[in-house]
Amino acid sequence: MNKKPDILIATAQLRSRAEARLRVRPGNDRSGTGVPKSATDPQRLFHELQVHQVELEMQNAELQMARDRVEPLLEKYTDLYDFAPVGYFSLDESGRILEVNLTGAALLGVERSRLINRILPRFVASESQPGFLAFLKRVFAGTGKQQVCEAAVLREDAPDFWAGFHGISAISVNGSQKWCRVAVSDITSIKQAEEAQRRMEILAVANRELKREIVRRQAVEKSLKKSEQHQSRLLEQSHQMHEQLRQLSRQILSAQEEERKRISRELHDVIAQTLTGINVRLAALKKEAALNTRGLDRNITRTQRLVEKSVDIVHEFARELRPAVLDDLGLIPALHSFMKNFTVRTGVRTHLTAFAGVEQLDTARRTVFFRVVQEALTNVARHAQASRVDVSIQKLPDCICMKIKDDGRSFHVERVLNAKGKKRLGLLGMRERLEMVGGRFDVESAPGKGTTIIAQFRSAKPVRKALIKSAKNKLESL
User: What are the CA-CA distances from residue 173 to residues 73, 177, 178, 179, 386 (Å)?
Assistant: First the structure.
């Protein structure tokens, strides 16, 4: 609506400039006041012709200047268009090529003049045709947004390649025809890189799986080696234990024979002599009774003492072989009696701590506990040079544990257990006794800390029942 006033203003300005230029021309002595006012005046017509001539000269000069400015720009634009790094295509709705730059023609491998009016979708591979036609449909839908498509493109005398299409719709100036601009670039290297990346990812996944499989197999191999080593150790331990059992059997037989010899000697040397003395005394008493009765009471008293001594010796042998108090009164009194006699015989102080529920153990286990204490104190007297021994029997959450701790000399446990001969007979005997009734045996010995023997039994139901019964009795008494 404002174009017509602008044209009138520009025309008026052009006329003013032309009249001003005409007035300054040489030979023109006509002043503004001498211009004829009549339209039919020849001078007025001549003046108008001169003004129009000046206007035409000025317009021609301006056109020449504009062309001089436009030609370099046009050449620059043409170079930019033709030698752009991507191909530019102008297409109509059917995909017919209206314009193309040199890069686009080079991508398709066809001269530019031969490409005009050819159908671009025909250069697209058949497997990519549906996607490309959908791309053109989106472009001509007129959303104003740039559409993107990737397709395989065929070339006449060159290998196929992958192209990336970027298109946007356009409308002619007169609005009579719809067309679009499409930029085409070669993305074969990108596709190859993507394919290489995909293959690398597949290879990486396969490599990770292979590494995991290698780790798993190495773990299995390591486990098999450990199992083989463990089996070898077990076999070796089995052989060692078999040999130990053989040696233990021989040593037990030897120990039994030695014990028989000792008992035989004691019976022969002590009891037999005592009984012989009693017999001699009785014979003497028989003669004295017939001759003189003054010393009869004294001799009878001596003979009674010999009989009492024989009885004590027999009792001592009986206690060593099997203490009757263990069966009659229980484990705790038997241990008290044995440890008291041990202190009297050796001078080593002893202390016992035990819980009452231990008496609910079966006879075999109470006997094993007693024999372990008996053997341990015997070893203390023979080897430890200790001044004190503490025996404790306590109830743990899952077992009954007995500890025998002395403050004497220590020793190398493994070396003693693996030694040959009688040095280890006591330890092996204790372990065999415990394992025979389902117990566990352990020895700890360290310099300056003495030796601790540990004997354990799994908690048995009778013990728990005894504790519960004891607790109920206490509550009832309250």
Answer: 22, 9, 10, 11, 120
